[in-house]
Amino acid sequence: MTASSRSRDHDRAIVAVVLRDPVGMVTRSGVAAFVDGIAMKVSGPADFRQWSAGLLPALAPVPTHDVRPGPR
Fold first, then answer.
1. Is the overall model pTM greater than 0.70, yes or no?
2. pLDDT (tens digit, 9 = 90+) per residue, 9-27?
3. Count of helices and strands (H, E) across the chain
4. SS3 of 63, please?
5. In Å, what is the CA distance from 47 to each residue of 4, 26, 40, 53?
6. Cα 4 from Cα 23, distance rounded (Å)
7. Spatial distance between the Cα atoms of 53 and 48, rounded to a whole number of angstroms
């Protein structure tokens, strides 16, 4: 698999859907699992860097810590 711009558009859409989940742990683990899966499929480190650079715009609004209230 190579990192094409078409697949990055699709991948950004997938990440955007996962990030809508109101539970921070779900969003983080969902995106991490997705990224891990892609990392196992690309042809090498350079291809993964190219793919991940295209994904960064979808991740920009994500805080580095969970600011959403969790279940009580």
1. no
2. 788 888 888 888 888 788 8
3. 3, 0
4. coil
5. 9, 27, 11, 10
6. 31
7. 8
